[in-house]
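Q: Could you fold this chain for me?
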Amino acid sequence: MGRGIRRTLLLVILLTALVLRLRGITNPLLDDQAWRQADTASMATHMMGRLMDFPGVFIPKLNYDGVIPQNVELEFPFLPYLLAWTWTIFGWSDLWGRLWSVALSLLTVVGIYDLGRNMLTDRAGLFAAAIYSLMPLSIYYGRVVMPEPMAQAWSIWALAMIWRWRVASQERGIWKIGLLMAGAILAKLPQLMLFPVALLIGFWPLNDQRLGQLIRYSMIVLIPPMVYYLWVHFNVSASSQFVSGIMTKQVANSTNLSWETLAKNISQGFTGIVLFLSGVGIGRLFFFRSPMRPALIVWGGISALYIVVVCASIPLDYYLVPVLPLAALLSAYALDWIDSLPGTALGIVFLVLINQGVYADLTPKYQWNQEYLSQARWINEHTAPSSVLVLSDPPPMTFYYAQRVGFRLITVKDDEIPSKTLQQFPADYLVQLPLPQNAQKERFWTNVQTTYPEVGPGIFDLRGGGDYGSR
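A: Sure. Below is the predicted structure, expressed as structure tokens.
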């Protein structure tokens, strides 16, 4: 396959990936995973005006739960920092966050092509890039304002670059590749699963010369994440230690395994065709010798363990995103089994089948509730900037769009007395979010309506009387 043909096909793949990821590009951050998206954008808002305040600017801050933004233990805020600079230069818009994610997603596609081409064949690289572009989870999470697109781009290029470094037999430059992998782990902690894969790609089989390089690379990769996560951990309150909280409460607690949800997320996010091809690719690995076999086998084993330990414990489909590149490479390896034209034709058929029904299957993820924006805009326009809110339920997106801080009612019993429940919060307004769960608290909300004046759409003044409409 000529170089010009490869570039043309890669361009077609990138254009296809771009078109698929532009769906819902103008949506507010209220579609699927709205909570996580609004959190990411909220961090960016708290960075504006203090972008050069190092290192404090890199401690993530969220609008809840307190009368001021709270420090929280999350991943290194690369995307929020980039978004804050973009807003500072071009003005605020949710669109900027989505465009950055789309660009990073396309960068990942190119990285998978590069890795597949170098580890396998030119055709396998193109197949891997195309398969990754078409997988439902890759499409949706390639345009979300979340850390996933950046973590994917940096981690796949960290693997591609260490392969290039290994083939070129270079003595220097390992620190640059190590920093790229460290950045991927800082952007999203699950990318740590790729560290052993990188070691095999770059340094196996081990010898005396490679041992020193391996040690230097490992230190460059692991020390920055260790320092950062420890620094953030000890600079937040116990209630805001989210990363360590997930590890100790959700992942370590095996009683929370949700196999049914996991199976549903895998089948919807990867499609049956990709799962079948991945299985064929794994089988081919065991029966045919290949220089990349050890790395891919270890990658597969770590991914299987990750799915069982993490993805079954936390039934959120975006935790499956780190496994997508491996599925794409294994599927491409399976399709590359058949040489020349028949294999290419069969591969195109499989690509069409992968994309079949994706539009309809993903449609629920793009839906969002306009009432959130209506409430948030009313609060932003009719209340003082220093107003403190209490939200009726945990989802905190209203804080971001109203540009306010406050508290959330995590649990409320139907027979609770509103005045006693709400007096614990130093807040000005109570916001009844447009969630179906509120129907379960009908008596509580009836008492709220008789106790406090409703001054806006589902917004109650906790301070008493006054000319509410003018605020």
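A (continued): The first strand starts at residue 61 and ends at 62.
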